Amino acid sequence: GTGRRTLVAGNWKMNLNHLEAIALVQKVAYDLKPAELETVETVVFPPFVDLRSVQTTIDGDKLAVGYGAQDLSPFDSGAHTGDISGAMLAKLGCAYVIVGHSERRTDHHETDAVVAAKAAAAYKHGLTPIVCIGEHEDVRVAGTHIEHCLTQLAGSLAGITPKQAETIVVAYEPVWAIGTGRTASAQDAQDMCAAVRGKLAELFTPEIAAGIRVLYGGSVKASNAAELFTMPDVDGGLVGGASLVAEEFTAIVRSGP
Ligand code: PEP
């Protein structure tokens, strides 16, 4: 989109042990040219247990690929067995954290209020949240997907200040397109991303909305990324399956403007 730096985010989900993570991040980072990484911000999201290895690899080799986590606790510390705090992620050098992915909303019953609390926790610890929204197929069939997603967006951003919103990233991920091979059409992605930007203008200001990156996610591949990324309100992609294959992921990064 206009004036916004394209962002390609690779969500590895629950895949790759720490040795496989090192191998993949090296392949991706050495294959992409500095100029390509300058044009398209490229960030990977390994499982928690891989973050230290990814950090060491990226820092040690001064690689221009960013990394972040797939989730964080809304709490700062304490009696929350199995959870990971924003402070821990910041200490590992994470720049971003995904919040409200549909798989978290489904597997862990995360509500918009929980997602908003996680986004707030991210900012508190100096991390930038990538806030995910998206409709299930029945909502798309009923034709109420835009209002559904805008309600989800407002709820997931509750309490976020205008200053925080300046750096936030929103990912529109229709649930029926995630991991199914059924990508939304570029026009459908554009229509929703434009509606999201309109809502962001209402929640914050038009100037802030004009600077926020809105990504599309859902079966993004090398073969469809270029068309999606040329749409005016689509500022990049959140990529799941295709981010696990170095050649496929780098081809998606190269599909940026
Ligand atoms: C995702 O995990 O956010 C995603 C969009 O997955 P996939 O690209 O595999 O559909």
TrEMBL record:
Alphabetical GO CC annotations of the entry are: cytosol
Q: Which top-level group of life is the source organism from?
A: Bacteria
- The EC designation for this entry is 5.3.1.1
Which GO molecular function annotation, any one, does this entry have? Answer: triose-phosphate isomerase activity
Q: Does the keyword Membrane apply?
A: no
Q: What class of enzyme is it?
A: isomerase
Q: Give a GO biological-process term.
A: glyceraldehyde-3-phosphate biosynthetic process
> Which residues are catalytic?
101 (electrophile), 173 (proton acceptor)
Q: Which reaction does it catalyse?
A: D-glyceraldehyde 3-phosphate = dihydroxyacetone phosphate
Gene3D superfamilies xrefs: Aldolase class I
Q: Which residues bind substrate?
A: 11-13, 179, 219, 240-241
| Pathway note | Carbohydrate degradation; glycolysis; D-glyceraldehyde 3-phosphate from glycerone phosphate: step 1/1; Carbohydrate biosynthesis; gluconeogenesis
Record keywords, A-Z: Cytoplasm, Gluconeogenesis, Glycolysis, Isomerase
**Broad class of the protein's primary localization:** cytoplasm
Subunit and interaction comment: Homodimer.
User: What family name appears in the similarity comment?
Assistant: Belongs to the triosephosphate isomerase family.
Function per UniProt: Involved in the gluconeogenesis. Catalyzes stereospecifically the conversion of dihydroxyacetone phosphate (DHAP) to D-glyceraldehyde-3-phosphate (G3P).
Q: What is this protein called?
A: Triosephosphate isomerase
Per the UniProt record, the source organism is Frankia nepalensis
